[in-house]
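Retro notes, structure queue

What went well: the backlog is down to a handful. What didn't: a couple of records were mislabeled last round, so from now on we paste the full input next to the output in the thread. Example, using Thioredoxin domain-containing protein from Providencia huaxiensis:
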Amino acid sequence: MNKLSTYQKSVIALLTTMVGVGITSTYLTTSELKETNALLASSITIQNHIKTESAGVNQSLSKILSLSENTEPVQQPEAQPEEPDLNLSQVQLDSNTLTYGNENARFSLVTYMDFQCPYCQRFASTPKTLVDKANGGLVNWKWKNSPLPFHEPNATDYAVKMLCAGAQNTDNHWKIISMWGNHEIDFATADMVGMFELDPVAYNTCLKTDSVKLTLDKDKAESRALGVSGTPTTVIVDNKTGEKRVIEGAVPMDMFVNTIEVMMKKSQ
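Corresponding output:
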């Protein structure tokens, strides 16, 4: 969408004032009037587009916000804590990134998670609920495995089980994550083959292959390069503008809604 230059905005502002006192024709030639009228028409088109897009986003955000347990007024940007100092250029998203929701969503919640982290487990339902309730596929959720060193080897082992179950049916990724978040699965004892109707040979072969481990190594390397020191860590990505914001911890959903709203307003 084209934007008006500072000069064009000044012309429109001046014209509006002149029209208000009825002296436009005194100072503008016919060609100048045509040019200025075109600028006015362009300005109106741009403003209408912004209002339409903003209305849709605000409707979605309002619906999301109503789900939050926090009924206090949403914090203004200046009241929010300072964002962690992470190297956001290291966030890597591609077609292989586990994604829940609309692939073409305006915003992505990129979560760096650890299956041995109790805060991650408590937090798992938050991005899923937000994605499920957002209007028009506004938000999607992207999962990154980020096992912390002191949770090894179990954190990596559990991630491998999730990925291998998902290799046979992609829906299994999110079934497992949801069950884990609801304390409905214990990776240490669960019969993954029976629970998710897996081909046992293919599943057990997957557990021993290097391809899954390479996927995990890639996520781990990204987490280190990003500077993740604790989980859950979430990077909110505006896929339209490229802006990224960081939220650390298992925070209430309204913090994500507020941040998305701030990012949306900033882009207008």
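Agreed that this is the format going forward. Reviewer comment attached to the example: The chain has two domains: 9-54, 99-267.
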